[in-house]
Amino acid sequence: MNRAWAVTRKEWAEVFKNRFVIFTVAFMPLLLTAIPLIILGATGSAEEMTGLSSADMPPSFAELCGEMSGEECAQYFIISQFLLLFMLIPLAIPVTIATYSVVGEKTTRTLEPVLATPITTGEFLAGKALAAVLPAIAATWAAFLVFVAGCVALGAGPQLLDRLTEPQWLAAIFAVGPLLSLAAANVALMVSSRANDPRVAEQISMLVILPLLGLFFAQIAGLAIINLNLILWMGAAVLAIDAGLIAFAVQLFQRESILTRWK
Amino acid sequence: MIKTEGLGKQFDEIRAVEGLTLEVQAGEVFGFLGPNGAGKTTTVRMLSGLIAPSQGKAWVAGCQIGVQDQLLRARVGVLTETPGLYDRLSAERNLHFFAQLYAVEHAQQQVERYLRMLGLWDRRAEPAGTFSKGMRQKLAIARAVLHEPQVLFLDEPTSGLDPEMARLVRDFISELKHEGRTIFLCTHNLPEADALCDRIAVFNVKLLAMDTPAALRRDLFGRTVVFHLASFQPQFLERVRAYPFVRQARQVDGKLLVTLDDPEAQNPALVQGLVEAGASIQFVGELRRSLEDVYLRLVHEGGNGGAA
């Protein structure tokens, strides 16, 4: 595990000297925190929102509003669209970091000296994955905490604040988020191991966000409602996917092919 | 320290290494010479546990390759063909990272020791990306020896370096030799191999020859004695050719060149014969064949067995 941690620390020392990566890691959480807060601020003072009732919401969503006033329910409806977008953070950041990590070592010819050490494939990939996952989790959690603090600062009602800290949100941000990160990092590492061009690797790896975007649009269209059940099913599915991806990533990382087929 | 038995490697239709059998003793500097594409890097990769052989067996530093690769990688050091450094990291940080991967005890001391030995200590905080080619190569060498390996594989250690830097690297390899390390040296620099190596192997997919540089010269070319004469007469050549132990005799620029198997034993008779024939001998010396002559003859005669 020391070797894996050494790879993680080396990765951070390298990656965070790259301004583009820092920008990418910081920009998405900032954007996805700022947008719902701006919307919340705008709708909180909008005259159009007064007089709304939960009956104005999609019926399946209105059930979730319970005792909320119409304005609060409307705000909650808008904000809840961002729950899935928040979960883009733990998907996109690992892809940015991990995609380059193996193919980058190929292009700079540093991979062979590393593989010539006693490091195992598992340790190497674990180090690379941790380097991508930990910043993503930190950024997601920080963004969520800033978002909740922003809601308080903007005078969101107690019922709305209660909803933001209810199990489905906490499970999504603090449990499913890290699992999604791990999945994204593993997919990016697999692509990075097989690709010969960092740009191709990044484009392919970014496809990992498509299922989440699909769910996001299904929610907007009223085809799916994000509730605790869905989050828990999602968590269980991603956990199983993670286990498979980790095993597959180790299998796919063929030292010999990577060293001898890379020119 | 290194032993191979019929070691081979096939990449799809390409036979990269075939039937390599050799033995390198502990503390020996072993030169591995061959043209580009001969399979030298593939051999180093197999012997350092990076890739698996397709045929044969090998043992390095007490570990069987393909069976104990992780332990093997801990016991050997590899200088790869290109230095492969983390350009954004400082020289010191580069070495610390590898010290952690090799689980080096007293990492800081080791890093400092080798940075000082290779003259990089004052530049330790600078990113490796700002280093010259020679400095990068020195840093890569420091990385290869940081964990005090029993066996060192050096792939073209002085390639592309200026003469001063190449000399420094050669001196460092000599120091490692005096420390008793086993060094497997791949190089195209034949004078360097001649100066550093106890034995050499000339290789082109298959092993073409293996021995000490002196023995290879003797076996291929014999030993040539040069007689500087005050004036050359054709009868001197006839007189010399009459001796049964003379392998070859010829005249070049007024000098008499005679190829013998054992000059120490055979020269006195030749000198006596030439003096009796009226020759005035000014000077007697030995023509030293370069390792390049040996290499070129072996490679040209051996051909390339690379096609499957």
Mean pLDDT of chain B: 90
Strand content of the residues of chain B, in percent?
25-35%
Distance between the termini of chain B: 31 Å
Computed Rg of chain A: 21 Å
Distance from N terminus to C terminus of chain A (CA atoms, Å) equals: 31 Å
Inertia-based shape of chain A: elongated
Helix count of chain A equals 13
- The largest beta-sheet of chain B arranges its strands as 6-7-8-3-9-10
SS element count, helices of chain B: 11
Shape of chain B: elongated
Radius of gyration of chain B: 24 Å
Helicity range of the residues of chain B? 25-40%
Give the tally of β-strands of chain B: 14
Largest sheet of chain B: 6 strands, mixed
Order of helices and strands of chain A: HHHHHHHHHHHHH
Query: Kindly state the mean pLDDT of chain A as a whole number?
Result: 84
Strand content of chain A: under 5%
Q: Using DSSP, what is the number of strands of chain A?
A: 0
Low-confidence stretches of chain A: none
N-to-C series of helices and strands of chain B = EEEHEEHEHHHEHEHEEHEHEEHEH
